[in-house]
Amino acid sequence: MKMTNILPYTLAFVFMTRHNIILLNEEFLIFLCFIAFVMLNVNKFGTPVYDNLKKESINLENNLKNFYNESLISLKKNNSYKKRTSKRCFLIYVHLGNYYYNFGSLFNVFAKNCMEDKLNSSLNKNLAFLHKVEKQTLKLFTLILIDKLQKLLILKGFYSKTLKVKNFKSINSLSIRESINKIN
Q1: If DSSP codes are grouped into helix, strand and coil, which group holds residue 24?
Q2: Which of 150, 146, 148, 128 is nearest to 138 (CA)?
Q3: Rounded to two decimals, what is the model's pTM?
Q4: Residue span of the structural domain in which 50 resides
């Protein structure tokens, strides 16, 4: 940096600190030191680093060009060999592809059959289990219903004969009359 460039910056800095636009605290002073450090390093070491990077890029470019040229030469040499073996490799590739396709389709059919067998057997087991559960619940339901009806008949007899409730007596006589009518 030249002196003419520093003067406007210094005047602007003094003006801003005087009017408390910039506060001189620890963080700002560390920031200024960092900026000064970076500027000095760029001024002192900028050109040697730039020259070194330029040399490295030129070397890298030359190495890539050499590698490209050597690769082209080796590809041209191998191209004649590839022409001789390409048809045979293509046939091997086709046969191998057909083999893998047939193997895959056979495996797919086998897997489907196994899955269907497993599903059928598990489905049959589940259906048999459900049928057994259905029979048992039907038996249980009928037993519960018979038990409730027996209790109801016992209570009806108890209310009509022991307690002699008139309502139950008339129901009892009606049921006897209906039974007699059914017999006739």
Answers
A1: coil
A2: 146
A3: 0.32
A4: 3-183
- Split into its structural domains, the chain has a count of 1
Scan for tokens 């800095």, then name that residue: 13
User: Residue for token digits 């620890």?
Assistant: 26
- Residue 140 amino acid letter: L
**Residue 169 CA to chain centroid, in angstroms?**
74
Angle between helices 26-157 and 166-183 (to 10 degrees): 70
pLDDT digits (tens, 9 = 90+) for 42-95: 888 888 888 888 898 899 899 888 888 888 888 777 766 666 666 666 777 777
* Residue 2: other Cβ atoms inside 10 A: 6
- How many other CB atoms sit within 10 Å of the CB of residue 139? 10
Residue 88, CB-side half-sphere exposure with 13 Å CA sphere? 5
Residue with tokens 């590698």: 67
CB neighbour list of residue 171: distance below 8 Å, 6 or more residues apart: 156, 160
Q: Is the dihedral of CA 138, 141, 147, 150 positive or negative?
A: negative
> What is the distance between the alpha carbons of residues 31 and 140, in angstroms, rounded to a whole number?
88
